[in-house]
């Protein structure tokens, strides 16, 4: 993301030493949920897809149609809030 946002200067300023991309695979067997808005203008949805790809199961990805960076869970009359709550209910029970 540092390179995407800040080019070579951003990449030089920010270390990748603790990148989520590299650590997400170590979470298993803990269940992982990623919620990402398709129209996120802060962190592109492709970044969430990379995290999901690198994660081991169990894992769930909710891509929110027309969702942005801060409004994804509120989209579609709270449909994704319900999905998230159902996921927690399943994982925690």
- Look at the structure and name the CATH superfamily: Alpha/Beta hydrolase fold, catalytic domain
Overall mean pLDDT: 90
Tell me the series of helices and strands, N- to C-terminal: HHEHEH
Sheet of most strands: 2 strands, parallel
Computed structural class? alpha+beta
Ends apart, CA distance between termini: 36 Å
Q: Any idea of the CATH class?
A: Alpha Beta
Structure characterization notes:
47% of the residues lie in helices and 13% in strands. The protein is flat and about 45 Å long. The protein is built from 4 helices and 2 strands, in the order ααβαβα. It has one domain: Rossmann fold (3-Layer(aba) Sandwich), CATH 3.40.50.1820. The N and C termini lie far apart (36 Å). β1, α3 and β2 form a beta-alpha-beta unit. It has 93 residues and is of the alpha+beta class. The chain has helices at residues 2-13, 20-23, 45-54, 75-92, and strands at 32-37, 59-64. The protein has a two-stranded parallel sheet.
In short:
By secondary structure, the protein is α+β, with helices and mostly antiparallel strands.
Key descriptive features of the protein:
93 residues; alpha+beta; Rossmann fold; two-stranded parallel ribbon; 4 helices; 2 strands; flat
Topology:
Elements: H1 2-13, H2 20-23, E1 32-37, H3 45-54, E2 59-64, H4 75-92
Parallel strand pairs: 1-2
